[in-house]
Amino acid sequence: MSGIITRRAVLTTGALGAGLVLSGCDKIAEQPGFRKILFSGEKINQGLQRALSARTALAPEFRPDQMSPIFRTNGNRNPNTPDYNAMAGVQFAGWKLQVGGLVTRPLAISLAQLRAMPARTQITRHDCVEGWSAIGKWRGPLLGSILKLAGVRDTARFVVFTCADLMGGQPYYESIDLIDAFHPQTILALALNDAPLDVGHGAPVRLRVERQLGYKQAKYIMKIDAVASLDGIGKGKGGYWEDAIGYDWYAGI
User: Fold this and answer.
1) Residue 243 has pLDDT above 70, yes or no
2) Antiparallel, parallel or unpaired: β 133-140 and 170-177
3) What pLDDT sits at residue 37?
4) DSSP β-ladder status, 158-167 and 221-227
5) Are 173 and 102 in the same domain?
6) pLDDT tens, 139-186?
7) What share of the chain is helix, strand, coil (3-state, %, to 5)?
8) Quick one: average pLDDT of 43-70?
9) Is the pTM of this model over 0.85?
10) Are residues 39 and 139 both part of a single domain?
11) Residue 26 structural domain
């Protein structure tokens, strides 16, 4: 695509400057030195992407007739823990979303309260890091509206999501910065294609941050915390897959 500066092109340019070629070099990519260069390049890419587009630039939205006939699940399909199964068994009647960290008013919001909040509906494309895409219709309150209710402190820079599914015995986690948290298309989705979220797609609530890849769209959200730094989150890279296998923290598309 001539004339378009892509995320991959930025990373490749940074790697070439260090004498490395990205395409097809899996063995090189496994080298610790390569990963150090890659992560430093990611920060450059993040800054370039945001410098080249308005901070409130919207991801493409689609018509109803463009929706995919099947919307595949990504990541875990069912937390299948005793606690989660008990909540799902009563349609999440006792579930509450905890909002805390660097906020002035910690919240505990029920599913009924979330459903009563003003909501945004958007038909967007989900791009999975595994190479597939699907277009679906999502509905839910703006994450920014919930953060405003909680009163995010000036010292906060990131929002961390803790989920019901377990990875290695610990709750799955993911994070975004406040720029994406307050983006007008970043929602806590309660419905997909006009139906309440099912278990496979992240019930009772999942994140939709539409300008990033699918692994950033945390499912089964239990808790949201505003934090000043990612240093104390997992291994410090901001998310489970980022820590486990080196996925980029900023997965912009």
Assistant:
1) yes
2) unpaired
3) 39
4) antiparallel
5) yes
6) 999 999 999 999 999 999 999 999 999 999 999 999 999 999 999 999
7) 30, 25, 45
8) 75
9) no
10) no
11) 7-52
Contact predicate 141/227, CB 8 Å: no
Question: What six digits make up the tokens of 205?
Answer: 């609530």
Distance from the first to the final alpha carbon of the chain: 14
Query: Same domain for 167 and 211?
Result: yes
Taken as a whole, the chain contains a residue count of: 253
Let me know whether 76 and 161 are in one domain: yes
Q: Is 146 left (phi over 0), alpha (psi -120 to 50) or beta?
A: alpha
Q: How far apart are CA 86 and CA 240, in angstroms?
A: 25
Percentage of residues in the chain with pLDDT exceeding 70? Answer: 78
Asked whether residue 58 is assigned to any structural domain, the reply reads: no
> 69 with 153, same domain?
yes
The answer to the question of residue 250 being in a domain is no
149 occurs within a structural domain: yes
Residue 144 lies in a domain: yes
Name the one residue in this structure whose structure tokens are 């490749």. 12
Q: Beta-carbon neighbour count of residue 159 at 10 Å?
A: 28
Cβ within 8 Å of residue 223, ≥6 positions away: 97, 98, 99, 100, 161, 162
Annotate 198-252 with DSSP letters as a single string. -GGGTTT-EEE-TTB-GGGS--SEEEEEEES-STTSTTTTSSHHHHHH---S--B
17 and 98 housed in the same domain: no
Number of separate domains in the chain: 2
Whether 125 and 48 map to the same domain: the answer is no
Confidence of residue 56 (pLDDT cuts 50, 70, 90): confident
Residues 122 and 221 placed together within one structural domain of the fold: yes
CB-CB contact of 167 with 240 (8 Å): yes
Q: Residue 252: which pLDDT band, with cuts at 50, 70 and 90?
A: confident
Cα–Cα nearest to 112, from 208, 221, 190: 190
